[in-house]
Write a structure and sequence with these properties.
Oligomer: single chain
Number of strands: 5
Low-confidence stretches: none
CATH class: Mainly Beta
Radius of gyration: 21 Å
Shape: rod-shaped
Order of helices and strands: HEEEEEH
CATH architecture: Roll
């Protein structure tokens, strides 16, 4: 039985490190993204996962309508909005 104690201790350390260095940061980023999307308002500039910049026109329950530079309207999922460039610039 004493042979398993160091192995279990080592395994517990590995599991704790995986949680601290992988799982926790991912959850933190997800919470930040969710908060950013919740804070969006009409007129905010955003960047989509596809690399397109747009201005928020309307926000629905699961999607956002953006006006792009050409004037066209596009609908993206809330998960497709990855950044608010003004937040990064501190405006």
């Amino acid at each position: 039985m004493q042979g398993f104690t160091p192995l279990l201790f080592f395994l517990a350390i590995i599991v704790a490190m995986v949680y601290l260095f992988l799982v926790r940061p991912i959850r933190s980023r997800e919470k930040q993204h969710d908060q950013m999307v919740m804070d969006l308002e009409k007129g905010d500039r955003v960047l989509t996962a596809g690399g397109m910049y747009g201005v928020v026109e309307t926000i629905d329950e699961d999607s956002i309508v953006l006006r792009v530079e050409s004037g066209a309207l596009i609908r993206v999922t809330k998960g497709g909005v990855i950044a608010n460039p003004e937040d990064r610039l501190g405006h």
